[in-house]
Amino acid sequence: MTRRDGESHTQTLERSATQRPRLYRVLLLNDDYTPMEFVVRVLELYFRKTEQEAELIMLAVHHKGQGVAGIYTRDVAETKVAQVTDRARQEGYPLRLVSEPETET
């Protein structure tokens, strides 16, 4: 910045510390109608899980009532929930997914 009297001044700006965005877990919820094979397929296609990882998550959903498909930023988690829900409805399945904030430890 140059002033009219010819003097030059430098201004220092402070940066505030950036925080990591809050993460959200995408949970698959158990139901009595969606086939296990469909759950494995969406885990592989939408959550990039290997077949073995997808089967373990599907079994957790089946036995425990829910399973974690992945942990993402809020926008990504909500998008995945919407995409998989749409796909399930197209195939005629009532599969439910939810996203919830990851608890900080």
Q: Which structural traits does this protein have?
A:
single chain, 105 residues, Ribosomal Protein L30, Chain: A, three-stranded antiparallel beta sheet, 3 helices, 3 strands, 42% helix
Determine the structural class based on helices, strands and strand pairing: alpha+beta
The counted number of beta strands is: 3
The CATH architecture designation is 2-Layer Sandwich
CATH homologous superfamily title = Ribosomal protein L7/L12, C-terminal domain/Adaptor protein ClpS
Helix content: 40-55%
CATH class category = Alpha Beta
**Head-to-tail CA distance between termini:** 46 Å
Number of helices: 3
Which term fits the overall shape? elongated
The whole-number mean of residue pLDDT values reads 91
**Which regions have little confidence, pLDDT < 50, spanning 5+ residues?**
none
The topology string of helices and strands comes to: EHHEHE
Any idea of the CATH topology?
Answer: Ribosomal Protein L30, Chain: A
Give the strand content: 15-25%
Largest pleated sheet: 3 strands, antiparallel
Subunit structure: Binds to the N-terminal domain of the chaperone ClpA.
GO molecular function: peptidase activity
Function: Involved in the modulation of the specificity of the ClpAP-mediated ATP-dependent protein degradation.
GO biological process, one term: proteolysis
